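Field reference: "sequence" (input) and "structure" (output). Example, Tetratricopeptide repeat-containing protein:
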Amino acid sequence: MNDARRSADHDLAQARAALARGEMSHAAGHLAGAIAHAPTLPETHELLSLLAARADGGLDLFPLERHAFVGTIVARAHLLAAAGRPEDGLPLLVAASGNTPGTDWAGVPWVSDPALAVRMEPSLLARVVMQLCTAIGDPAPLQGRDSLRPYLTLMRHAVTAHPGHALLLGAGSALARRLGETRLAVDWAELAVAAESTKLGEIWLGYAYRSAGRTGEALEALGRAVAHDPDDLSVYADIAATLADDGRLDEALSWADRALARDPTYDCAVHTAGRLRFRADGDLTHLVRVADFQRDHPDDAHEHTDLADCCRGVPWLGHVPPAGFPRHDPRRRPPVSQRPSAAAIERLRRVASPTWGHPPTAYDAALGLVLVEPDELLALLIHTPPVDPGMAGSASRSDRAWWERTARVWACLGLLHHGADEPWACSARRRRLVELVSDGTDQITEAALFALVVYAWVDPAARIDVAALITRRLIDAARGENGMSTASAWSIAQMALATPEIDPAASRLAASMAEARAATLGPDVPQQRRRGTTRRLLRWLSGGLSPRSPQ
C-alpha cells in the first residue's frame, strides 16, 4: 500500500507540472496512472476535476480504445458522472471491477449516492450488475469483497426506488449471494419470483436457497426453471450438482444423463457427468474422457473446474507427492558436464510448481520450456537449481527435497515440447524419456515416467505405448527389482493409477500396492489377503493366470 501511495504521489506531481505547462494530454496520462495506483485518493479526484474544468469536461483526454489502460477507463467513468451522466460511467467502473475485483474502484461517493439508483433505468442497472456478477466469480474471493460492497449499496437504493422490479431484484440477489449476504439474497430472490416467475428468477432463487443450505427448496426452484425452459441444459447440470452435494448421486447422474440425451456435446453436462461418474466408481476413464472433450472443444461457453476438482489432492493427477520418494542417486546416472545456464534456471523457476490443475494443464504450463534446449533440460535433471525462494516453507530440508523433485518433474515435462511435430513412436522426446526411465530407479526415473503419463493424457495415440511402459515399471516395483524401494513402489503405483488406458489388472495391482503401503489397513481386509491379491495380479500380468478379477 505504501508503494502504491508513493507511485500515485509521483504521478500526481507529474500531472500538476504538466497541467501548469498546459500539457493536457500528459497531465491526463499521469492522472490515469495515479487513479490506477490509488483509486479513491482525494487529491487525485480534486486534480481530475480541475483538469475537467480546464479541458471542457476532459472526456477527449481519456478515450475508450481497444486495450485501454484501466486508469483511463476509470477516469472517464468519473468524468461522465461529474458531467451528469453517471449511468454512462457506471458500466465503465463495473468493467474495471470485473477485471480486478480486489481494487476499490467503486469506493467513491457518486456510486453510493441514492440519486444514482433513482436516475438509472432499473433494467439497465440490472444488466450492468449481471455483467459484474459474471466477472467476479461465484462466490467472489473473500479478500476482494469489501471493494465490491458499494455496488451492493447501490442495489439496496435501487430496490427501494423500484420495488417489485423482478429483474432488478434477481440481479441484486445474485450480487448479494456472491458477497456472502445469503439472507439478503434469499429475500430479494423470493420477492423477484413473487413479482414474476421466470426461468432466470427461479434459477436465482434456487442458487440463493442452495447457498442458505435449503436444498429441498433449491431443487424445487430449479425444477420450476426447467419447466419454464426444458431446453436449457445448464439447469440440468445445476440440479445434478445440487443433488450430488446432497449425497444423492444416483439422482444426480440421472439428471446429467437426461441432459446428455438431449445434447451429447453440451459442455456443462459432459463435465458434470464425468465428475459424478468418477466420484461414483473412481474409474479414471471418466476423467480422461472429460480431458479429451475439453481438448476437442476449446470454445466451450465458459471455463469448467470439474476435472481439476477431481484431480486436486491426488498424487500425480494434481501434485508431486511431497513424501515417500526415493532420493536421487547420482551414481545411477552418467555425469553431465554441462551445467544449466542462468536463463534455463530462470525459465524453469517460472513454470515449476508442485501442484497443477490436472495433467493437461501441466503439459500446457511446460510449453515455455521449449525455449530451453534439451541438453540444458537434461543438465537441470542432474544439477537442479537451489530451492525456489518463493516456495512456502522452503527453508526446511523436506521442502528443499520436494523442490528438487518438482524441478526434475518440470524439466522432463519440458522435454515433451521438443520435436513435438514428430510421430510419438519414433520421436526424440520419447527416446529421451525412455532412456531416463530405463536407467535405475530414482527421482529422475519417476520424473520421466510422469512426463510419459502426462503425454498419454494429451495424445490418445500414445496411450497404449505409455500404458505398457508404466506397466513394465509397475511389475518391477511389485517384484522389488532394479533396486526398487518401498517408497518408490508406492509412487509408481500411484502413477499407474493416473495412467490412461492402463490394463485393468495393472490398475488393480497398483491399487493393491498403494493400499498395502497405507498407514492403516481396513479391518475387513486382512494384510495377508492384500498380499495375496498383489501376488495374484502380478502373476496375471506376467502371464500366469486367467484374467478374472481377484477374489
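Residues 2-20 form the longest helix (19 residues).
Residues 520 and 527 are 10 Å apart (CA to CA).
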